[in-house]
């Protein structure tokens, strides 16, 4: 702004000086041309020449904007091609995202043709090509530092799809080292490292993910809990009980909803003679996430107790989390064993309201038989068993198979952290 004002001031001063200079020299000019004769003064001639130059300049600019110069014509065409190319590229990515592979492939070819830069279109082309060609294209992407991340990430996904975990781990490591937007990659790399039993490497990945902010806080803590749980098991195998307990408690602290951590910590505490602390941990865990495994762990703490003592202990749990069906079911079973019929019926009814299942119908049949010797009422309950909704179980998200107890790896497909209670 200041520069423009200064330029204007200088130009104005020069113009005034020139005008004064011309006015001081009022000479005359005579132009003769083909029988024409023009008599004029120098200032008028100078003004006329300036006006003519300005007119020519204006006409040239007008002509250029109307018809465009040859350079501009080609530049415009290139810009249009680039724009169309980017459009094809982004449309192709969108088609890929919604799973329209045919459309994505057509758009990839179009983007390839329009955009001269194959490092841009390589990713889309690789994702739409058949696996062998895709591997080729991804490999080419790994050669340039700018696209190495995308190439290795693509090769990781390809290897995962073909079940080659070793190759996937190798490429995931490279992609991780290349940096880039690593949000999904951190979880993939962690799962591959953990699956290969490389828990220390997996723990280092979590530290790096935290540094790069490549994983959300809750996801990070949950995985830290898995690492600690694994370290606890390792310490226990090696006979280091203090370490085993410390790591189990660390796992529990990192993820209070991880049932396996509370169960493990309680078992180790119990073995160390700290039954009260074990009970406290199981109760806290039950309050955070009421899981039947916690009740089983609690009962295991006192295998010799009387049925009445058992009822008392489970009552405390039910009070901590009154909407958990598993609590009412366990309390009803304990009450049946203690022959407290009224209490058994109350909690069976409550549990059926919350979540009906074959186990509850069998307990209700038992109640009808033991309290009232009513065989027909018992049979009525039992007839509902085959059509009852299935009991919840640890089920693998990856392969869909159920399994008896929680483990960090699915026993069927070896997927890491894939078991959910459903
Ligand atoms: Zn599985």
- Uncertain segments of ≥5 residues (pLDDT<50)? none
Distance between the termini: 69 Å
Task: Please compute the radius of gyration using only Cα atoms.
Answer: 40 Å
Q: Mind telling me the CATH class of the domain at 216-304?
A: Mainly Alpha
How many strands in all? 5
What is this structure, in a nutshell?
The protein has 422 residues and is mainly alpha-helical. It has helices spanning 2-23, 42-67, 70-97, 101-114, 118-128, 131-142, 148-161, 165-177, 183-195, 199-212, 217-237, 241-254, 259-271, 275-288, 292-300, 307-320, 325-337, 341-354, 358-372, 375-382; strands spanning 28-33, 36-41, 394-396, 402-403, 419-421.
Task: Describe what you observe in this structure.
This protein has helices at residues 2-23, 42-67, 70-97, 101-114, 118-128, 131-142, 148-161, 165-177, 183-195, 199-212, 217-237, 241-254, 259-271, 275-288, 292-300, 307-320, 325-337, 341-354, 358-372, 375-382; strands spanning 28-33, 36-41, 394-396, 402-403, 419-421. The protein is mainly α. Among the domains are: 216-304, Tetratricopeptide repeat domain (Serine Threonine Protein Phosphatase 5, Tetratricopeptide repeat); 392-422. The strands form 2 sheets. The protein has a 3-stranded antiparallel beta sheet with strand order 4-3-5, with no helix packed on it. A two-stranded antiparallel ribbon has the order 1-2. A hairpin with a 2-residue loop joins strand 1 (28-33) and strand 2 (36-41). Bound molecules: zinc ion. Residues 396, 398-399, 401, 410, 412-413, 415, 418 line the site of zinc ion.
């Amino acid at each position: 702004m200041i520069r423009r004002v200064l330029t204007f001031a200088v130009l104005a001063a020069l113009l005034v000086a020139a005008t004064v200079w011309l006015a001081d020299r009022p000479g005359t000019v005579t132009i003769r041309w083909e029988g024409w004769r023009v008599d004029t003064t120098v200032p008028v001639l100078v003004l006329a020449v300036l006006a003519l130059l300005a007119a020519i300049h204006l006409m040239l600019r007008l002509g250029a904007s109307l018809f465009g110069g040859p350079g501009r014509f080609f530049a415009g065409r290139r810009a249009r091609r680039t724009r169309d190319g980017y459009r094809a590229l982004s449309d192709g990515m969108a088609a890929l995202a919604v799973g329209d592979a045919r459309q994505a492939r057509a758009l990839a070819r179009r983007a390839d043709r329009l955009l001269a830069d194959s490092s841009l279109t390589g990713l889309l082309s690789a994702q739409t090509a058949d696996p062998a060609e895709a591997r080729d294209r991804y490999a080419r992407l790994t050669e340039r530092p700018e696209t190495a991340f995308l190439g290795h990430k693509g090769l990781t996904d390809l290897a995962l799809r073909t079940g080659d975990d070793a190759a996937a781990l190798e490429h995931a490591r490279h992609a991780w080292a290349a940096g880039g937007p690593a949000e999904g990659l951190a979880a993939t790399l962690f799962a591959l490292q953990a699956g290969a039993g490389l828990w220390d490497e997996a723990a280092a990945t979590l530290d790096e993910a935290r540094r790069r902010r490549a994983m959300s806080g809750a996801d990070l803590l949950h995985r830290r809990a898995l690492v600690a749980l694994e370290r606890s098991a390792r310490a226990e195998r090696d006979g280091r009980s203090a370490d085993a307990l410390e790591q189990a408690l660390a796992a529990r602290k990192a993820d209070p909803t991880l049932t396996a951590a509370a169960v493990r910590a309680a078992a180790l505490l119990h073995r160390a003679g700290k039954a009260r602390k074990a009970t406290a941990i199981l109760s806290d865990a039950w309050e955070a996430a009421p899981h039947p495994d916690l009740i089983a762990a609690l009962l295991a703490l006192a295998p010799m107790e009387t049925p009445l003592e058992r009822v008392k202990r489970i009552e405390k749990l039910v009070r901590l989390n009154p909407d958990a069906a598993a609590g009412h079911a366990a309390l009803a079973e304990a009450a049946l064993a203690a022959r407290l019929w009224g209490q058994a019926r109350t909690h069976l009814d409550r549990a059926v309201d919350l979540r009906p299942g074959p186990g509850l119908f069998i307990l209700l049949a038992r109640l009808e038989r033991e309290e009232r010797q009513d065989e027909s009422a018992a049979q009525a309950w039992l007839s509902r068993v085959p059509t009852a909704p299935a009991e919840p179980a640890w089920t693998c998200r990856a392969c869909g198979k159920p399994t008896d107890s929680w483990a960090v790896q699915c026993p069927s497909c070896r997927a890491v952290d894939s078991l959910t209670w459903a």
